[in-house]
Amino acid sequence: MGTPSDGITNKKQNVVNVNDLVQYLDTCHRSHFMLFNLNLLEDTTEFQAHGDDQSIVDKLHEQILEFYWERDGMKAHTPPLDLMFRICYALDAWLSIDSKNIALVNCQTGKTRSGVVVACYLLFARLAEDPVDALVEFYRKRWDIKSLTPHALKKRTPPSIQRFLASFHELLTTHKPRNDKPLLLKAIIFRQLPVELQPCVQIWDDYKLVFCTDALHVGESREVPVLDWNEEDGFFAILWENGVELDGGFSVLCSFGEEYDNVDDLDASSRVLFRYVDSTLFLLPGLVTLKKHDLDLMKPYEHGFDDDQFSVDLVLHENSAKMPRSLVHMNFSGSSAVRQGLVEITKHHVVLPDPSMYSNFIRMGFCETPTTFALQCSQNAPNVALDLLHSKGVSACFVQEAMESTATKDVEEPVEDNQTEEPPAERDLQPTLRRQTTAEIVAMQSQRSQYSIPTALDSSLCDTCKEDDYMMRPQIVQCMGQCGRYYHTTCVGLRKIPFGLTTMSDCANHAAYLKKFLSAWECGACDPESPLSKEDLPSSWIGGKSSTSSTNPEDVADTDDRSETRDKNLKRLSEQIPKKCSIS
Question: Residues in domain PHD-type (predicted)?
Fold first, then answer.
């Protein structure tokens, strides 16, 4: 879908009204949706509907994953291949852990980036056999064009997108690239360029600009190349002695140079003549010759390029001096794929996990990744997080992880003299999954922390003892007076609240207890006289330990039956407590 806005929903014009979207999601898929945002998160968070103070992030309950890719300002339709695998793992994990879950893929127009991601996921999930067929399936559903054929779409799809989908499909099939080593670009030679003045040539890697002829941006190597331009036959050569390092995806853009009249009046996209996008993972050292059909030619200038005479040559050399960039494993399947997907979700979720809640869940025996995932999806609500941790999809996946961890420890034990250790080559066939720690997740999310709503720590911090103990959170009460501060019942002389926050039934009892007996309570500074007395409470609620059972609120009774007043209070309380309570 396109970016949500305050306009009227119009699918053909890529307009999605944010309030319509939120109403639909809350009605049909509440607690089961996740937005995979391919836009710059800043654009999404800063938008607010007219007359509405809530941002899109707030309206969507912060269930957003940021998978935006950029190349230092250059518009790129395709992400790094490594990032695409991470997106697919995240999509697969989210859809696998609960059959009710749905994923929303969002980009600026809802067409190009979304189409590439959805097509790759269809290939990843084995829901499509051919890259073009996968893209056709997306556009048929997106625009309701049932008559669209692969041949028709292929003619209208830029070669760079077709090349990216084919490369991704090849990696899914082979699990390894043709070339896993970086390369050196030693020369680019253009023949029969249809321009009168020297063009501007830019080279980008997956993340930034590494070379530009106009500004003579020479990149990290600081090497100034030799430029040879001949306006008579449109010949342009760029030669490096040491070469430009390429590792992974890269783009070559050729556009009108600064010497053209009125070039400053054109936007960046209008200046571009053509672009070439590829990856070193699928190129080998040697000469690569590109013809017109291999390049993304801009429509206004396409007619000027000769089909036979025009060409671009890339001279590539080995780069043995540089280690290749580490990539995510491409052959995870089953539970391993789901676990990797949850790792990616925790990395890219806009909510930061509450550190104290995280620590307590870890002490309770839960694994790191599902704990972080549960806290993010619950917006740091401990009871909802606990339900997620106990859900079938999450718990089953990480029970298997615990078994694999035990098996790994057994393998790592010293072998006896009469035993033969397994050959390294065989061990390497099984990829290892590195779990993400909270410290790493927080570090990776630091650049996005400004967009997420911080955890309300004040609501769990006692103003008297200044402690935020997770196990004492059921005993937190708020002063309803002028100060509005929070206190532990034991710190202000109140009776201990006899209900925990472990089960849904406990939550119902806890909420009803607070509403009935503490909704008007004020601390000593605001009101020296306590409104509660021992006689006001049912005898079964005085003293004792916090309940952890699933007792139905209507089954709570005053067994002593010593006071008619208490019976009436209990009856009124039972009528006010709902049988089911949903905590969100």
Answer: 459-529
